[in-house]
Amino acid sequence: MSTKSINTLQRPIPEPFFRILRAFAFDPSCSRNYGNFMTLQVPFEHSMGPGPVGNYVAVVDYDAANKCYYEPVDLNDPRILATNGLDPSESDPRFHQQMVYAVVSETIERFKFALGRDIRWRRGGPPGARFHGRLVLLPHGIQEANAYYDPEMHAILFGYFKASETDPGSNLPGQTIFTCLAHDIVAHETTHAVVDGIRPYYMEATNEDVAAFHEAFADIVALFQHFSMKDAVLQALRRTGGTLFRPKMDPEVKPGVDGPLVTAQLTTDNPLVGLANQFGDGIGLHGPLRSAIGTPPNSKALEYTAEPHERGAILVAAVFDAFFTVFLRRTEDLWRIAGISRDEAQDVDLHPDLLARLADEASQTAGHFETLCIRALDYAPAVDITFGDYLRALITADHDIVHDDDLGYRGALIDAFRLRGIRPEGVPSYSEDALLWRPPEEPLALPGLQMVSPYLSQEDRRAIQESNAKKLFAFAKDHAETFGFSDTGRISVDSFHYVHRIGPDGNLLMEMVAQVIEKGKNNDKSGAPNVFGGVSIVFNTDGTVRYCIRKSLKTRSENQAAFRRALWAGSAAGAYAPFKSLPIDFRALHRGY
Hints:
Shape: globular
Radius of gyration: 25 Å
Distance between the termini: 81 Å
Strand content: 15-25%
Number of strands: 17
Largest sheet: 5 strands, mixed
Low-confidence stretches: none
Mean pLDDT: 86
Structural class: alpha+beta
C-alpha cells in the first residue's frame, strides 16, 4: 500500500511577551488576607538563566552568615512556567529568589514607562566582571534587620533577622523575618538603585534634603504600587467607608455591647498606607515601619526635622495628601449617583458596583501620580536637590504633558506642599506659572543632535553617543555663563538620552534630557569633600533648549561646604552620620529604619 505525504501548514507560534510570577502583595504576615497572594506580569526574558539572571538583574543567593549558596531557581523550568511560578513560601529560598526578581522587574518597568526610555545602572566596575551591567540581588545577603542598596557592589542586600522574643507583634517570638519577602522593601531598594543610575550625584549629601529625598522618593514609589493590587484596594475601600486614607480599617463585623469577641470584630491596620508591616511588627513598632498618613500639616516641621526618614516623611505626606485629595474629587460624582454621602458610608454596606468603580478610580489616579513622580526626575536639578526643586519639577513635568489640568493634580500638589512648609527658592509665589521652570533668557539651540535608534548596531549607537557627548560638552563650555559654570575645565557630560512620552490625551512628547556636572574644590582645611554644581538641560527635538535647570557653584558652593563641615564636626551618632563619608551609606542610614 502506498502512502502519500500530507502537507500541513506550519504556523509559527508567537513568542510570549510576559512572564507571570507569583508574589506576596505585602509580606507574609498578611497571609492570604487583603489579596496578599498575587501574580505579577513581567517581561519574558528568553535568554534568562537560573538564579534568575536576566538582562537587568542577577539574583545571587549567597548566605554570607551561613557561608553557603542556595539552589538557584530556573524560571524556565516547564513545571514552573505551567504554574505561573512557585507558590509563595517563607521556607523555600527559590521562592525568595523569584520574589525579588519579579518585584524588581516590575519596578523597572514602571520607571521605563514613566521616563519614556530604557534605564541604566550606575556606571562602574570592570567590563569583564561577572554580571557587569546588571544589578546583583542577594536575597539572604546579611543577617540583620536591614536591607540596603550598595552602589560600590552594584547590589541590593536583603537581610533576615529574628523577631523580638518579648514584643513580636503579629509574628511568633523569635520568628525569622525575611526582608526579601516584603514587596515594599524590595521596591524601595530598587528605587534607590534606579535613582542612582538616573541622578548619581544625589548620592552626595550637599544639603539636608538630599538624603531625605532619596528615602522619601523610594517610599513614594513603593507605596503607590499598593494601589495596583485590586483585591487589596477593594477591601480597603469597603472597610474605610470608601475614603482609603484612614490608617485603620473597620472590623468585618461590628462588635457587640461587650466589645469584640472574635477576630472579625477587630479593627486592623490599613495595608495600603503602611510600608513594611511585618518588619515594623518584628522590631516592636506595633505597626508598619512608615506610613503615607502622617501628622496633620505643619508648615514649621521642616525647620526642626533633620533625620532623613523623618524629614522625608514630610515629602511623602505632601504627595499622598495631593493624591487622596484628587481621588476624593474624582469620585464625587460616583457618590451622587449612588445616592449616599461619604459621611453615610461609614454606617452602610457599599454596593459592589460602587466599590468596583471607586477601586478603578483609585488605581488609575495612583498610576497617574506614580508616573508623574518618576517623570519629574528628568525635570529635577542634576545635583543638590531640595524639596522645593522637586515641587517645581512635578509641576513642570505635568504641565508639559497635560496642559489643561482639569482634574486639579497640580493645584492639589501646590496646596499640599505649601501646607507642609516646602518653599521653592527663587519664585515670587506658589502660583503654577511661577513654579514652572523657564527657558534661558536668550534662546539657545544645539542643532545636529542625533537620535539613537534601538535598531542600530551597537557600534553605530556608540558612535552617535560619542558624537552627541562631544557636541554637548562644547555647547556647555560655549555657554558657561548661562549654565552657571565657574570653571569649564572641571565640567563633564554626565548623561544624555532621548525620551518618548505619551500623555493621557494620546499626544507624543519627544525631548532630549542631558546633565552636565561641575566638580569644585573645597579650598578650606576642614577635610570636607568637594562641592558640586550642574545643569539639567531639556532640549526640543530641533535642538532648542526648552528648560535650563541649574545649580551654580557660584552661588551654592559655600552653602554646600558649610553643610559638609557641620556633618564632619557633628557626633558619630548624629542624624547625618551615615553620609559623613561619601557616597551616602544606605546600610548605616537604614539601621535607623
